[in-house]
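name: query_chain
kind: protein
chains: 1
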Amino acid sequence: MRQSRSLFLAVLLAASGVSIPAAAQPRAPSAATPTTRSLVSGMRVSGGAERAQVTLTGSFDVPQYRVHGRDDGRTVTLEVEGARIPDDGLDVDGQASLVSTTASSATAHGVRLSLRLAAEVTHVVRAAPGRIVIELTRLSATEGAERAAAEGPIEVRGVHVERRDGRDRVVVELSRATEFRIHPGSSGPARLTIRGASLSRAVEREIALSDNEGDVVHGVRVRAHGGRATIEVDRASGARGTAIREGNRIVWLFSGGETRQARPRSRTIAREAWAELDGGLDDEVEGDEVAAFLTDVPMQVGRARAQRSYRGRRIDLDFHNADIHNILRMIAEVGGVNIVTSDEVQGSVTIRMRNVPWDQALDVILQAKGLGMVRRGNLIRVAPLETLEKERELAIARQKQNVELAPLETRLIPVSYAAATDLSPRVQELLTSRGTVSVDERTNVLIVRDTVESLDDIEELVRTLDTQTPQVLVEARIVEATSQYVRDVGIQWGGNVLASTATGNPTGLIFPSTVGVTGGNYDQATPTQGLSPFNGDVPTPNFAVNLPATTNTGSGGALGLSLGSLGGTVNLNVRLSAAEATGVVRIISSPRILTLDNHEAHIAQGTLIPYSQISAQGVQTAFQEAKLELRVTPHVTADGSVSMHVKVTRDEPDFTRTSARGDPTILKREAETDLLIEDGHTAVIGGIYTRNTGRNVDQIPFFGDIPILGVLFQRRRVRDERNELLIFLTPRIVNRAESLRR
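structure:
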């Protein structure tokens, strides 16, 4: 094949009188040149005169393909997107009486395989990684007659879901084969529409399936409206589908859902169409999830060439004053395309290029000669730019005329969750110049009158925007933990000593003949309990060191000791007191509230504390709030998280600390912040930790510093208080499945 191609180029250019330099020969891709296309390696045909099977093998993973029949089912064409065939052609292994001839060719977007059949057949296509299988069945005379007579309305006779081989299949049973359209969308439900179809009474309108982990299809809804049947499929996030036609059935295969919630992407629900140069507009299937090619979009005149990407085979060109027709024929041979030129295309070209994709070389040559092109599949039409511009203007005018003459349809679009008056301005933007929209506020219905194509876009817009408003349950948890440790150890001791003749121990001096020493550190409030077994309180304890610990009912303890001589000359009173307290307090507050997306919610509970105000009008009573309060404004993001502005307040009266008039102080705890939390997750939005420690020593100067004996002249107090405050927040989207559907 390579030799014949080179010979063809040589004869072509020799006929035009142009020399062929060595660099002008097509250059095969080098080993270092990467290729992005899958290789179709072989084809096998097996079977007989009634049934046949054609298997196409290649290096593709999950092929994107399109199959259609022509000549009353006697020709079946298979197009595989993003594939290529070997340079020496595709070998066919085996044969079948039903398949008379086969032909394969490379296109700009893939590989086309044509099967010429000996009789009218029905075909079923199955795809798997690395292969595509076409099963052909001969159509009997009776079946052919029934098929030829199959006219009239299309009826959807049944819809059911099959789960096998790790895939979910939505099977649509029809009264006869027909065309369909897929609206896959990037997230939310995928839709399949069948024009001119109605629903049978036996069709189940809604199919609810188990929402188990690993299931791809979660539910199916079937409805008929406006002369078309619509099948909506609720699928797992990230699931992709492929729809194929098997006789009177449409099989919609879904597989590969992401386990983690993917971030939804934007979707195009309406696009202004470009007028094609031939005046017609082909129906385009929206999305790559349909088992077919997208319609080839022609290279429009005036579009920016810098936006194009070139992927053609790289070649070397070196010509001087070569006829442009011969150059175009050579490029057509190298690129495997068909090029048609008009009579206005003429002139010569001088060009020198090396290692350039053939489609880029063609683009540059046409630009240099003031020419343009229109491409449809592997067919390229070349004409002067002026001619294409005029044709394009005529096509646009023809399209506008078609819009002006298109029949109008009135459609009632019910709105469930939004206000129809709010959606009316959005709908107005998609109307044509002949369209109108009005709102019935009583029933919350949009009344739209426009062309069918515009009404489809408007209905898709309304279905996308008319979703449940997310409801968020916000729960705050305020945890406060307090621990306290207090220890107080004190001592009281004293007494009296009297030396006199009355007690029999005079000093023996004239002066002083009597000496008395007594402790004097006491008053009426000095605790003396326990010094005497007979008296609860000793009126004159004569304490010299009076450093008692604070003890009372329910806290601490004290021990009294009294020592004295028989004559009362020497008396010693000792009282030991000590108190220790340890406590732990834990307070949990959990306010929660349910609110709509972007609506502020507020919940509070507390106490009003009265206090007096003195003014010129006299004494008035006012109230101070001490309450637990949660104030939040949530916003649900597109990926299912919750963004919130939240304010949490916890005020508590403290009656242990009061004013001079006895009014309690207010212990205030407050947190205000903005944060983003995933649905159902818990976040710590704030916390406060405080610790107060103290150690006090009260002592008698000098004596308290004496080692060991100094404890007799000291009072020791130790205090350790710890307080920790944590605030947790948990948002939950109550109606997540319905509100986040896109």
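note: The radius of gyration is 47 Å.
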